[in-house]
């Protein structure tokens, strides 16, 4: 679930509409699909099961058929993929696919996960150990024999790896490409449509309970965006803060740019991403030099995937930057699943965090510890303590220790 990420290091991916059901603000689409009444399998464990407070069932797919054994979804390659209506051995091999599956209640049906490497996932979520979910290290070159031996009956995967997809398909394993080769959204409306397409692809693949959960999350996103936008939409001139958002690399010179989620999150929060007009050819990030950063002179610096800003603060080349001078370099919080907030289900939390940081006077009412606790209770069925919420904000593990093992 990320802006293309150019197949780097097993990071995120973005996603597409499901053929069974996809609804956007701009239009209501009823797509032909299968299987109403798909049931999420497995008894709920006490946390991280994706339990939702949303009530009411989801709409039936375009062609309701309670006896159906399969569902057809349209993935990001534009392919109609026939998958089991109740897949029981999911290979979440795309970087951010396991957090999506976990979020939507599919942990009990997952065999492999990829790139969920924080200490939170094992300490707070019993699912990984209880369900025997294994960490798959070489997802870009999957061992087909191994997948078959484990009975994997659905794989979420990258776009652009056609040879690997073909190998899995030839072995009878359905593959849903759940990120596009490139992303090219231009504005907030495009971003909103993309995140809906993204979450609904996973939801349609996982069944009706997941669809209800996804819609509840989308309603939450709309609520938080509206609340923040009401205070920032009239800002202009120097009130719109200059923000530089580091993706990773200790030198701070890999940053988010055009077609990135942070560009939109910063914009909604009342800032402008100084690198936001740099063409990334659909990847969402780019590498720049120090001279360019100094020329942009951001007032705030946020880090996406770094666990420390010591290297930046100790680097004299960064000294002329206003954010450094004013002590406005911020490690963004971690999530329950991954080491970043800038992409995925926690993106609205990142928006709130940015807004409160760059406009503290406008958003003094935002209590990030409370927001974190309410979010994870509502969407993950996890009750975090005040201390744990604070540790998450401080980018620490659940016991205050290291974030990664």
From TrEMBL:
Keyword Cell membrane: no
UniProt keywords, alphabetically: Membrane, Transmembrane, Transmembrane helix
Gene3D superfamilies named in the record: 1.20.58.2180, Nitrogenase molybdenum iron protein domain
Ranges for domain Fe/B12 periplasmic-binding: 79-362
GO biological process, one term: cellular response to iron ion
InterPro entries: ABC_Transporter_SBP (IPR050902), ABC_transptr_periplasmic_BD (IPR002491), TAT_signal (IPR006311)
Transmembrane domains' residue ranges: 28-45
One of the Pfam families matching this protein, by short name: Peripla_BP_2
Family membership: Belongs to the bacterial solute-binding protein 8 family.
Full protein name: ABC transporter substrate-binding protein
Organism per entry: Gordonibacter massiliensis (ex Traore et al. 2017)
